[in-house]
Each structure stands twice: as C-alpha cells, then as structure tokens.
C-alpha cells in the first residue's frame, strides 16, 4: 500500500478540512484505494481459507489422536460428533464409488436412476463435510494450548495466518475509509464549484499554505509589489441622463390671419433622471498586494487597497467603491467571483499585517 497511501497535505479552512490536490486527483486516488481494497479482500479471503484449512487439519489430528492428549470434558461431545461425521463422509465416499461402478454397467434408463442417486449422495456428503470442517476448526481453537507437536504446528501456522489477516483487514478498512472521505470532499468541492465557478475550497487551502502566486501584469509595479490577478476587463461607470416629461405654461395668440399661434412662456415638465451603466474603456483589471488597478486603452486608474470601501460581485463583473469617489467603478470580466475571492484574501492579509 506504499504508493496508494501516500497522502497530500490537509488544511483546516473556514469551510472545513481541504486536501491540497485538484478534484480529478482526489477522484483518481479514491478509485485506486477502492481497487486496492477489492484486491486485498480477495487476498483476505484466501488467508481465511488457509487459516481454516490449517485449523481443520489440526482438529482432525486431535480427533484421530484423542487418546494421546487430555481432552477437556466440554470437548468430548464435539469429538464424538466429529467422529460420527467423519464416518458419514467416508460412507458417502464409498457409496459414490459404488454408484460409479453401477453407472458403468447400467443401461440408459438405469444410468438416469444412478445419476439421481449420485447427486443425492454428493449433496449429503457436502453437507456433512461442511459440518465436519466447522466442527474440527472449533475443536482446534478450543483444545489446550499444548497438546502434541503435529497439532500444535498446524495451529501455530494458523495463528500466523490470522495475524496477517488482521493486519490486512485493518489496511482494507483504512483504504475504504480514505476513499469514502475523499468522495465526500469531492462532492463538497463540486458544490463549491457550482456556486462559485471555480474550486474555491482548493484555492483557499493553497492560499493558506503557500499564498498567492505572482502573475505578469501590464502595470509598473512599485517596490515590494506583486501582481496576483491580471485579467481582461471592461471599465464601466454609471451615467445619469435627465429628460423632462409633461407640463406647459404661458398663453398663445394668433399671428395675423396665418392660422399660426405664438406661445409665450415655457414648455418644461418634471425632470426625470435615469441611470445606466455605460462602458468606458476596454483593458486589464489588475490586483496586487498593494492596490487595485485598471490599465486601459484610453483610461487607467489605480488606488491603494486601504481605500476600498465596498465591493459587490455580479454575474458578469464587480463594482468597487473607494474612498474619495462618490460612485463605484464597474469592471466587467469573466469569473468575477474569483476576482473578489482573491481580493478578499489580499485584504485580509493586509489587515492582519
């Protein structure tokens, strides 16, 4: 189990324990453990059969040589029953041999009758042999620790096989437990992927153990500044437009005989303000360990992280409100939840420093 039991680090996060490995790797490892456990179960069954064989052999020796050792009172009935079953099995074997001879000399219809009788004898023998085997195992287990060499050697071999079996069963239980645990984690992380659009639990564990990895960005970095996120984005801002509706004032009178009327006064209703999100520029959104920046074709902005007042995430972007500016900037991008997730980590690191 050396290769299969190699473990990845497990990190305790706010969302529970997380294995620092991608979901496909966890699924592959769980499959390996289940495959190993299935093979090991077959080996375990072989060890059980070998153990029972050794004990049955020891039991048969004890029954056949009961005069050579001191039989406890509670074992006498079992030994007598074992002798009876042994005789029954031997009798069935003799009957089977005799029926074989009859079959060879019988006609077609006679052979059918002999076959039926053979099947019945074989069935009776199998039942008796199974009962005898189980009884011999019980006798071997119940007999005194030291009887005589022939039986003791068989029982010692059986004890060694049982020790191997016990260790193997413990490994099987552990492997199945690990596979089940990974299955549960995979299900939990897939739910997180569905909600966030990425494996947020894995990324939280990676950030906790090794921090964010620097990335290239179209931004001149300051001293000790590292960029952690650089993604295509569109800068957008809320624009207010005003128009008037309804209302009129003044009076009108005709001009000569033209039929045209001239109005004196004003035609202005109530002002109606409408806000709409307007795309301003296309460029790159950058998050560093010191600031939030946007590098565009016609506009570029940046501000320190400690100026961030509020962040909201939408399906197609994020809005960032900052100190000194009345309205937030909107950054339309792919995977906005990932950007906010990473920003939250950067802000928490800055708050803790």
> Strand-residue fraction?
15-25%
Number of helices: 6
What percentage of residues falls in helices of 4 or more residues?
A: 40-55%
How many domain regions?
2
pLDDT under 50 segments (min length 5)?
A: 248-253, 255-267
Q: Please, what is the average pLDDT?
A: 86
How many angstroms separate the termini?
43 Å
- What's the overall geometry? elongated
Largest sheet: 7 strands, antiparallel
Structural class assignment: alpha+beta
Order of helices and strands: EEHHHHHEEEEEEEEEH
**Count of distinct strands:** 11
Radius of gyration: 43 Å
Side by side, the strands of the main sheet go 8-7-6-3-11-10-9
Provide an overview of this structure.
- There is one protein chain.
- The model is unreliable at 248-253 and 255-267 (pLDDT under 50).
- This protein has helices at 23-64, 76-105, 108-142, 149-196, 200-210, 336-352, and strands at residues 10-13, 16-19, 227-245, 251-254, 261-264, 270-288, 291-296, 300-304, 308-313, 317-322, 329-332.
- The protein has a seven-stranded antiparallel beta sheet with strand order 8-7-6-3-11-10-9.
- The chain contains six helices and eleven strands.
- Strand 9 (308-313) and strand 10 form a beta hairpin.
- By secondary structure, it is α+β, with helices and mostly antiparallel strands.
- The two termini are 43 Å apart.
- It has two domains: 10-183, no CATH class; 213-239 and 274-352, PH-domain like (Roll).
- Helix 1 packs across helix 3, helix 1 runs antiparallel to helix 4 (149-196) and helix 2 (76-105) packs antiparallel against helix 3 (108-142).
């Amino acid at each position: 189990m050396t290769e299969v039991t190699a473990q990845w680090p497990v990190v305790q996060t706010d969302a529970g324990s997380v294995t620092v490995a991608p979901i496909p790797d966890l699924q592959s490892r769980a499959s390996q453990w289940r495959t190993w456990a299935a093979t090991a179960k077959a080996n375990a069954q072989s060890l059980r059969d070998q153990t029972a064989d050794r004990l049955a052999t020891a039991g048969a020796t004890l029954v056949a040589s009961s005069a050579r050792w001191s039989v406890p009172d509670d074992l006498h009935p079992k030994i007598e029953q074992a002798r009876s079953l042994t005789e029954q099995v031997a009798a069935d074997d003799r009957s089977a041999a005799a029926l074989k001879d009859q079959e060879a000399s019988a006609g077609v219809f006679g052979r059918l009758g002999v076959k039926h009788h053979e099947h019945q004898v074989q069935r009776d023998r199998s039942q008796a042999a199974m009962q005898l085997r189980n009884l011999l195992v019980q006798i071997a287990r119940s007999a005194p620790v030291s009887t005589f060499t022939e039986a003791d050697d068989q029982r010692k071999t059986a004890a060694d096989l049982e020790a191997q079996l016990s260790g193997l069963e413990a490994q099987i239980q552990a492997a199945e437990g690990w596979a089940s645990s990974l299955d549960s984690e995979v299900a939990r992380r897939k739910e997180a992927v569905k909600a966030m659009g990425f494996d947020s639990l894995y990324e939280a564990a990676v950030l906790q153990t090794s921090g964010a990895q620097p990335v290239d960005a179209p931004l001149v970095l300051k001293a000790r500044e590292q960029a952690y996120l650089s993604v295509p984005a569109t800068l957008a801002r809320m624009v207010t437009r005003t128009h008037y509706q309804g209302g009129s004032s003044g009076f009108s009178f005709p001009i000569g005989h033209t039929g045209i009327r001239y109005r004196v006064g004003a035609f202005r209703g109530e002002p109606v303000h409408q806000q709409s999100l307007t795309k301003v520029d296309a460029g790159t959104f950058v998050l560093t360990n010191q600031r939030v920046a946007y590098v565009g074709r016609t506009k570029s902005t940046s501000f320190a992280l400690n100026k961030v007042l509020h962040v909201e995430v939408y399906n197609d972007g994020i809005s960032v409100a900052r100190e000194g500016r009345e309205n937030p900037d909107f950054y339309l991008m792919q995977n906005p939840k990932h950007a906010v997730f990473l920003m939250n980590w950067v802000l928490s690191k800055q708050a803790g420093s």
